[in-house]
Amino acid sequence: MKKIEELKFSSEIITKAKELGATLAGIANIEDLKSAPSYVVAPLMPPYSGVGANKERIDDRKPGEVIWPEGAKSVIVVAYAHPEEKPELDYWYGSNDPIGNRQLIRIIKGLCEWLMNSHNVGVFHLPYHVERGGIYLKDAAVIAGLGCIGKCNLLVNPEYGPRLRLRGMTIDIELPSTGPLMYDPCRFCDERCNKVCPQKAFDKKVYSATEYGRNELPGRDGNYNRNLCNVQMKIDEETAEVQKIELFDEPVRVVKYCRRCELACPVGKGKVID
Known about the structure:
Elements lengths: L2 H17 L4 E6 H4 L3 H5 L32 E8 L10 E2 L5 H21 L3 E3 L11 H7 L4 E2 L5 E2 L7 E8 L20 H4 L13 H4 L13 H13 L2 E3 L8 E4 L4 H5 L10
Antiparallel strand pairs: 1-2, 2-7, 3-9, 4-7, 5-6, 8-9
């Protein structure tokens, strides 16, 4: 595929993703991703089995290791906006996936069908968790031009801040990455995201460039402690209440995970989302 054809096809994919309901979409070439921070640092970090991670690995991969689907050459990343005024998009109703994640799954499934049926492209719908065969979506989103990793350890987008949910898929066609952006709103910020954490997960440096071989670390400076973050997630689960929700015939347990750092970020505040 010639360069101009690659760019046209990439644009067509992104347009289709938005037609299907994605807020944003981009493409990351897998060769670019292999040198992204998480792909280098995560396999060196202690094993993690906190909330959302599958303690029983699906194969013999090492902790933090990504094994790419056969034939995968590019990743399509889609983002779905999660504004402060719509917190229910990320609520867990019993064992049911959050509404926002279901929307992302629907978008990716639509893209898969369109790419296979209209373009004869080989696709693979990635699981969300690396432990279950997924990839590091935040890094993929950076390479795809959707934002940067902020001091909150989340993807921060110029329009929506960190209030986005991500999902990805791979295709067997090599396309150029649509990013990264030359964008960094956190460089001179007052770190209000770090200050509001109820578990003080950003208060101490837990990773160093000397130990991990690069400067891009969790929390940017190595000060994000995912184990403390997990403490809050467990509290959120333990204090979840059973409620009557219109979507269900019977009352269900509603888990509302902490978003304090995400909601404290001023980037994208005031963005009106339909």
